[in-house]
Design a protein that fits this description.
mainly alpha; 8 helices; extended; 229 residues
Length: 229
Amino acid sequence: MLIPWVFALDHPNYARWLPIHVRDMLSLDTLAPSIATEFESGHFVVKLVKGEGGVIGLTENASQLLRWLVCDPEMARAVNEFELSQELIKHEQSKGSDVRHHEQVESKQKAFVKQVIAFTDTIEEMGHPVSEESEDLLVLDTRDIVDPKVANIVRNIEQIGNDKYHEYVRDRLDKRTTPLSDPIKQNKSHLFSRQEVRSESNVKGQISSLKQSWSLFSQLYVSCQGRDS
């Protein structure tokens, strides 16, 4: 089920409205039995679907419609002229000059073979990621071992989302103790690309303060040496 994942991964808009949609669909037999019967018969597909291009969707905007009517024929003409010019160029080149693709040369082929060999060597050196027998959670491309907190969240993330989903349904739809418009508290789970930010120690600040004090002391010492005794 998709809904627990939108709760677990902090997608508040989907998390707010998907449970309501599911609830409506589940109660359709009671609230609108005729519509439920049609849906079960497969009559739920949109009849008219806009394909690529066309004027559907532009009729409500006069300026966009006018732009499309004026520009589209000119764009088609320009594309046709470009394609025709390319055909003429290829025909002229085929008479004597080199018409090969820019990668169909010896240097490109050698570089490609070199890259393939380097890639296969790297795979053999690092080992097959699927055959890894370690119990640690690894990043497949870098082989880095993730933080234990991240590993624990990944192993339990579906259960976390399920708990949040059932809590949302209980408090906002069943008991209605929490308004539907209230913000949904985010989990801010630490995952592969969003790991915990470690707090920096005060060592850097102390070093910077010492450098400033040392510079000030040096200036004071030089100024004292220049004064008359």
